[in-house]
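Box 3.1 — From sequence to structure: Putative sulfate exporter family transporter
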Amino acid sequence: MLFATLAEQSHAAAALEEGVNTTGIFRHLHTPRVLFGQAFTLRQVVFGLFLVFCLTPWASPPIALALGLLLAQTVGNPFTSHTKAFTHKLLQFSVIGLGFGMNAHAAVQAGKEGILFTVVSIFGTLLLGYFVGKWLGLGRHVVHLISCGTAICGGSAIAAIGPVLGAKDEEMSVGLGTVFVLNALALFAFPPIGHALHMSQNQFGLWCAIAIHDTSSVVGAAAAYGNQALEVATTVKLARALWIIPVAIGTALVFKQKGVKIKIPYFIFGFILAMLVNTFVPAAKPVGPVMVSLAKIGLTVTLFFIGAGLSAKVVKSVGIKPYVLGVVLWVVISTASLYVILHAV
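Predicted structure (token representation):
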């Protein structure tokens, strides 16, 4: 009895920390029960059922993200620390797996088309972010983190630039929270816009790579649009992600940080290797479809985990000004790149 009471209190405390309602039916969802000697809660069962569904052919990246968001806003994520630790690695392995479905020659062509957009949009976003952030009165670290996340590759860029910047945990949380919320919106909004504007697969893939922050949402939106869009978006986005290195070096110089360690996104080289194997090693051809299928499942689960981490508390804790900065940067880069792509590609 004492064990059950203590367990119930600990689960309730965790739920309150996540900003989840623990009254009425929600209290029953958080109350531990014992079956076959194992303690579990009903919200853990709900999480498990959603996760299993994400492994089936009926799930898609947008549906998985929606399920994660639904879980986060209602019963809460019972495995927050685990999903947070697992998400990054799962995304990396999924991206590498997608490389087994891509052709190196087509990727080089896509990279050539996207390089000018990449350079202009990255430096344009960082410059615009500086002035808008100054106008809003935000701290330099928060402004730079959100700007880098928007300009390069979302959460990965923030995670790499933060230590170089010497950013505090709260500043990192604000940057990540802003980017992930806008990521979720982009995943749902971009495919309908692309269809409404009758964008080609190539155009849409290029637009996703430039205008959507995080690699997970880029790949998810492009996969919903078509295979060619997925190939273009993934290639251009990963080439864009390599700009973490020069931007991190520039950050260390501008903010006068010495002796910092720059985090290189090595998984990109795994993606390139997988693509080269798929293109130039005929014996590996039968493996390609299997790896791509597993990668798409991994991406779907990744987006479920990301959605499950966006609780109401996380969204509210960011504050309005960082969202204003993020939205301004996002709208400018989205509309400007869309205009150029529709008229030049």
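Summary of the box: Strands lie at 33-35, 38-40.
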